[in-house]
Specification:
9 strands, Cilia- and flagella-associated protein 299, three-stranded antiparallel sheet, alpha+beta
């Protein structure tokens, strides 16, 4: 099943590509029992959007539209096969360690030579401490990264990322991406399996990160903690 994601090509988004509209996405979270008791599809959709009904974390309409747009852009890029301008091109971010690290890796991640996971721990806009693991390649495909390099937006983990945890509310989520499978609830702790070469990345700081992988902790005052995991991807022979 993992190979199916690769066949669909770079930029494939299982949500954006499967559902034509946000309403279709909400409908996928509604079952026949909900409709029977609520007797109102619109009400059922509202309850799903609010997170009261449905399966797991529901993405917001704004994020859905962003992902649809990014998916269409990725599709057009595949058709045109033209070199894509790097989001970090011409950006002066030398004084910002995380942005510099992302800039250094952007081209290699875009062309598939490298996969990168970013661990960020910091406080959100509500003052709550959150942490999470972000698939850099997936973010590059699903949203414009230029506002981050322009410092108009601040990169933070989301419930829709590979892994997310809110230390105050204790909300925890994990999601596979086209690049990684999440392996949780095992003796080794949280692991990420690369879908291309099937190698496993161990994010435990006490353990080695794994074959063809490196762990780099960034010294920065912008966040409480930032760690970058790089994996050189190699297809199975």
């Amino acid at each position: 099943m993992d190979d199916d994601l690769e066949i669909k090509g770079p930029g494939y988004d299982p949500i954006a590509d499967e559902f034509a509209t946000y309403e279709d996405y909400l409908d996928s979270q509604i079952n026949s029992t909900d409709v029977y008791y609520l007797e109102d599809v619109e009400l059922a959709r509202q309850l799903v959007e609010l997170g009261i009904r449905g399966n797991g974390e529901v993405i917001r309409r704004e994020e859905f539209e962003q992902r649809k747009e990014a998916s269409e852009q990725a599709r057009q890029a595949r058709l045109n096969k033209k070199p894509k301008k790097l989001a970090s091109q011409g950006k002066h971010v030398e004084e910002y360690p995380l942005l510099q690290a992302l800039k250094d890796r952007e081209e290699a991640v875009r062309n598939g030579k490298l996969t990168t996971i970013i661990f960020i721990r910091d406080k959100n806009s509500k003052g709550q401490e959150v942490s999470g693991y972000i698939d850099y390649g997936h973010r590059l495909k699903t949203e414009s990264m230029e506002p981050y390099f322009d410092r108009k937006k601040r990169l933070m983990p989301r419930p829709s990322d590979l892994s997310f945890y809110n230390w105050e509310t204790q909300m925890s989520t994990s999601n596979p991406t086209p690049n990684f499978q999440v392996i949780a609830d095992n003796e080794a702790g949280l692991l990420f399996k690369n879908k291309r070469d099937r190698k496993v990345i161990n994010v435990d700081p006490r353990a080695k990160p794994g074959d063809n992988s490196t762990r780099t902790e960034l010294e920065t005052s912008e966040y409480l903690q930032v760690v970058v995991y790089d994996h050189v991807t190699r297809r199975r022979s």
